[in-house]
Every structure is written in structure tokens, then in C-alpha cells.
Amino acid sequence: QVHMVESGGGSVQAGGSLRLSCAASGYIPYMGWFRQAPGKEREEVAVARIDKNGNTRHADSVKGRFTISKDNAKNTLYLQMNSLNPEDTAMYYCAAAGIEPKYGFGWEYYYWGQGTQVTVSS
Q1: Which of 7, 35, 38, 63 is deepest in the core (most CB within 10 A)?
Q2: Is 108 helix (H, G, I), strand (E, B) or coil?
Q3: What is the rounded CA–CA span in Å between residue 3 and residue 56?
Q4: Is 104 left (phi over 0), alpha (psi -120 to 50) or beta?
Q5: Across 37-104, where does the E strand assignment appear?
Q6: In terms of DSSP bridges, do strands 10-13 and 116-121 run parallel, antiparallel, or are they unpaired?
Q7: Which residues are paired to 21 by β-bridges?
């Protein structure tokens, strides 16, 4: 069982930046970030994901603004978020899997954190 704890959320104005962290209790090779906006379902596909070799994928909605990274020595996942806009307001969850997710869908990940809230005001 892997436990994960997110941190780094908060309230910022549009154009601002935040860095989310997700500390895992152990090594797990495949990790990603998902988000759920207020009143909406969790987005089906990861906002960003990273594999065991450090290869990354970012959703079109965040490409060029968000960057996922991972420190394997610390078992910690990060999401650097720049140029935030109000549409980025959501609860952000880190997720992890031992088997490589083929599509980046939420059902492919079986360890989840509790989430950290990001609020962007205009």
C-alpha cells in the first residue's frame, strides 16, 4: 500500500504560479496529476503524467504552462503551475500506478492522494 500526501495548493490571482507536491510513502513508477473543478466530475484524463523513465505528457489545456516532474530519491511528485487562470481552479489529486497507464485515464491509477485545493481569482 502506498500513501500519498499532496501539498502546495492555495489561492492566487490570475497569472500567478503555484508548485504542488505529492509525497509518496514509497517508490512507485507511474504517477500523474488529476483535477476536479467545483461542481464538475474529475477530469477523465490526467492533467499531466510521468513514467518511470521521466517521460512526461501534459494535457493540451495546460501544455506550456504546467510542468510535471519527479524526484525519485524523495519519492515526491511535483506540478509547477505557471500562468494560472480561473479555469484552473480545482482540487488537484496525485495518483500512482505500478503498471504503466496506457491512456492516462483515472481508472488506470490505483493509489490516490486526498487532494490539494487550487483557487485562481481573476
Answers
A1: 35
A2: helix
A3: 22
A4: left
A5: 48-50, 56-58, 66-71, 76-81, 90-97
A6: parallel
A7: 7, 78
Tell which residue, 93, 91, 98, has the closest CA to residue 119.
Answer: 91
For residue range 55-86, list pLDDT tens digits in order: 999 999 999 999 999 999 999 999 999 999 99
Task: Check if the beta carbon of residue 70 is closer than 8 Å to that of residue 54.
Answer: yes
Q: Write out pLDDT tens, residues 22-56.
A: 999 999 999 999 999 999 999 999 999 999 999 99
C-beta of residue 101 within 8 angstroms of C-beta of residue 48:
no
Which pLDDT score is estimated for 1? 83
Cell numbers for 120: 485562481
Closest CA to 61 of 37, 38, 94, 31: 37
Do the beta carbons of residue 66 and residue 118 sit within 8 Å? no
